[in-house]
Design brief:
Blueprint: H1 20-28, E1 32-36, E2 45-47, E3 49-52, E4 55-59, H2 68-74, E5 77-82, E6 85-93, H3 97-110, H4 114-122, H5 126-129, E7 132-137
């Protein structure tokens, strides 16, 4: 009897989505915790997150060498805190110009206070655009 093996698909599989309750909480809230790296000693720090098309994104402001964004580049596993819930995630870098534009629009729509506007404008710079990740479940 010959056993046929399935060939790996050449199609890219879309990442799974976070639970709807987490997405709704990110849409409703302003500040969230992120801990980068599964094997790091990083603590939770507060960041801004947005939802675009039912997907959760974040953009780094400072982009420090030991900061959360660069830690995710080395070790994409981590966790986010949404309310009282801690969710294990994997960070996926965003490169699509269309998606990056939509994320900028989402930041501008969500963070509208006078103090936030400076950061929203700053998120449009090329180096910060390049520091954008999507959070997907592990």
């Amino acid at each position: 009897m010959t056993v046929k093996r399935k060939r790996p698909s050449s199609r890219r599989v879309a990442p799974r989505r976070l639970p709807r309750t987490v997405i709704a909480a990110v849409e409703a809230g302003k500040y969230f915790g992120v801990r980068a790296g599964a094997r790091s000693d990083h603590r939770f720090i507060g960041i801004w997150m947005v939802v675009v098309g039912g997907r959760v994104f974040a953009r780094s402001w400072t982009i420090k060498p030991e900061g959360w964004f660069n830690t995710f580049l080395k070790d994409p596993l981590g966790a986010i805190q949404v309310g009282e819930r801690t969710v294990r995630i994997r960070a996926v870098r965003v490169r699509s110009a269309t998606m990056l534009d939509a994320i900028e629009d989402a930041y501008a729509a969500k963070y509208t206070t006078p103090g936030s506007k400076m950061f929203v404008r700053g998120f449009r710079t090329a180096r910060r655009r390049a520091a954008t990740v999507e959070f997907v479940p592990r």
